[in-house]
Amino acid sequence: MGRAATAVAALAAAAIALAPFLAGDGFVYHVAILVAIEGLLAVSLHLTLRIGQLSLAQGGFMGIGAYASALLARDAGLPFPLALVGAVVIAAAIAAALGTVILRVRGVQFALLTFGLGEAIVLIFVEFVVPFGGNNGLMGIPPASLGPLSLQARPAFYGFALAVVFLVLLAVRGLLAGTPGMVLRSLADNEPLSRSLGTDELAWRRLVFAASAAVAAISGSLYAHYLGYISPEAFNVGATVKALIMNVVGGVGLLAGPLIGALILVPLPELFRASVRYQQLLYGLSLLALMLFLPRGLGGLLAGRSRP
Amino acid sequence: MFQQFLVIMALSAAIYMLLALGFTLIFGVMRVVNFAHGEFVMLGAYALYVVQDVLGVGYAAALPLAALVAGLVGVVCERLVFRRFVGDEIGSMIVALALAVTLKGAVTAVFGTDGPSIARPISGVVTLGGAVIPKDQLFAAAVALVLVALTHRLLVATRLGLAMRAVAQDAEAARLQGMRPWTTYPAAFAVGCALAGFAGALTAPIYGAAPDMGDAALMKAFVVVVLGGLGSIPGALIAALLLGALDAGISILFDPTLAALASFGAVIAVLLFRPSGILGRA
C-alpha cells in the first residue's frame, strides 16, 4: 500500500471506530462492544496462524481469562484492572507451560490436539462446580471500573474496549515487526537454516503462543465484566471456529484481517434477525464462496497485490 | 452392574466404530480432516426421517436409502469443495468447518431448529445373563458391526479398496502405478460419508435428530480416530472398544462429563506421546 492509501485506510478505521459515539444509540454501542471483544479473540487466533499452527483452543483461553477475571474480581475482591491483568498472566502462564509440550506437535495433529484441549477446558468448567459454577456458570460479576471511573455505561465501556483493542494491535504489531517476527519469518522461509544458526524455534513459537493466549484472556475478561454473567458453552470450540471464520473473511495474511472479519460478521446475526431460519445457511454459503474464490479474504482485496 | 457395563460398552463401541471408520478412511486416503463428518451423520438421520416418516417407506429400505443420500452429498462436496484443498492441511480443515456450518444451516432452513419426531420401528428389550438390552440398540450395534466388516472386505478384497489403500500409503507412487486419485478420492468420500449416514440413520430412531447432533458425533469420531491413529482402520476399531469401556465405566461410576473429560485427556496424551496413535503410522 502506498502512503496515501495507508492514510485513507487509517482514516476509515478511525471513522468506523468512532461511529458508535456519533450514532449514540445503546444498541449500536452493544454491537460495537461485541465487535471489539470477538475481534480480540480473532486477533489471538491470528497470532497462532502466524506461527503456522491452527489452534482450536483459543476459545478455551478466552474462557480461562473470563473465569479468572470474574473470580478474582468477585470472590477475591480485586479491582477490575488488577483482575484483568491477573487473568492475562494466568492464561499466558498456562499457555507457556502447555506450549513447551504441545507446540512440538505440528500440522493436523496440532489442530486436533488443541481441539481436544479446548473441549477439555470447557469440560473442566462444567465438571468442577466449585469454583466454576458448573453448567450454570458464574453470575454477579462486578462491572468494570477504572478506580473511581465507572465503565458500567455502554459508551464508557466501548471507549475502554476501543483503547484496549488499539493497544493490543500496537503490541501485536510490535511483536510481529520486531525480533520475534523476524525469527518467525526466517523459520517460515527456511527452518533448518534458521535453526542451524542457533535459533531456539520452540522458545519463539512459545512466546507467540503465550501472547495469543494473553490476547484471548483480555477478550474473555472484557466479556465477563461487560455481560456480568458467563457460562462454559460460550468458550467452546464453536467460539474458536467463529474467530477462525473472521480471519478467513478478513484475510489471514493481514493483521487488520481479523478485525475486518469481526466488523462484518458480528453485526450480521443482528441484521438477519428476521430470517433467523436462513441465517446460518447464508453464512455458511458465503463462507464457502469466500474460501473457494477469494482465499485472501476481503482484507486481501483491499491490500491489492502487495504482500502483507 | 458389571454385565450392564459390558452391554453399554459393546453397544456404544459398535456405533463409535461406524462413526470413526468413515472419518479415518477419508483422512487416510485424502489427508483431509473432515470436520463436517458429524454433519453427514446428521444428514443420514434427517434423510431417514424424510424417507421413513414423510414418504412412508419401511425402515429396512429407508436405512440404506438414507446412507445413500449422505454418500451422494459427500461425493458432491468432494468434487466441489475438498478437491481444491488436497495437500493444504490448514485450508482443508477450515473449508471443512465452513461446510459444516453450511450443511447445518441448510437442514435448519428446511426443517427448523427443533428435531422432527421419528417413529421407532423396533421396541422391547431382551435380557441376557442379567443384563437388559434394548432391542433397537442391539439392532443398531449389529448393523454397525456388519457394515464395519463389509467395509473391511471392500478395502482388502476389491480393486477399488486396493487402490484406496495404495493412495493412502503413498499417493505419488500409486499415481505412478496408474491409479487415479481423482477416482479414489470420490470413492473414499462416498464410502466415508455413507458410513456416517448409516450411523445417523441407525441412531435417529433411538436418540432423535437435531441440526446440531453432528457435534457430538464428530467428538466421538475424533476421539476414536486420534486414539487409534489417524488413517488407521484397525487402530480405530481397538480405540472404539477402549472409548466404549472408558465412557461406560466412568459414566456409571461418576458422571458423563468426567467421562468426556477423560476421553479428551487420553486424546491429548496420545497426541503428545504417541502422535501416530495406538496403531497409526507416523
Structure description:
Chain B: It is a multi-pass membrane protein. Chain B: Belongs to the binding-protein-dependent transport system permease family. LivHM subfamily. Chain B: Keywords: Amino-acid transport, Cell membrane, Membrane, Transmembrane, Transmembrane helix, Transport. Chain B: This is Branched-chain amino acid ABC transporter permease. Chain B: It comes from Chelatococcus reniformis. The complex is a heterodimer of chains A (308) and B (282). Chain A has 308 residues and is an all-alpha fold. Chain A has a domain at 27-236. Chain A contains 15 helices and two strands. Chain A has helices at residues 3-23, 26-50, 58-74, 80-102, 107-127, 129-132, 154-177, 179-189, 191-196, 201-227, 237-250, 257-265, 268-271, 276-293, 297-302; strands spanning 145-146, 149-150. Chain A has a two-stranded antiparallel sheet. Chain B has 282 residues and is mainly alpha-helical. Chain B has one domain (2-219). Chain B contains eleven helices and two strands, in the order ααααββααααααα. Chain B has helices at 2-30, 37-54, 59-80, 89-111, 135-157, 159-169, 171-176, 181-207, 213-228, 233-253, 256-273; strands at residues 125-128, 131-134. In chain B, strands 1-2 form a two-stranded antiparallel sheet. In chain B, α5 packs antiparallel against α8 (181-207). Classes of the chains: A mainly alpha (308), B mainly alpha (282). The A-B interface holds A 49, 54, 101-102, 104-105, 107-109, 111-113, 115-117, 119-120, 123-124, 126-127, 238, 241, 244-245, 248, 277-285, 287-288, 291-292, 295 and B 31, 33, 81, 84, 89-91, 93-95, 97-106, 108-109, 112-113, 215, 219, 222-223, 226, 230, 255, 257-258, 260-261, 264-265, 267-268, 271-272, 275.
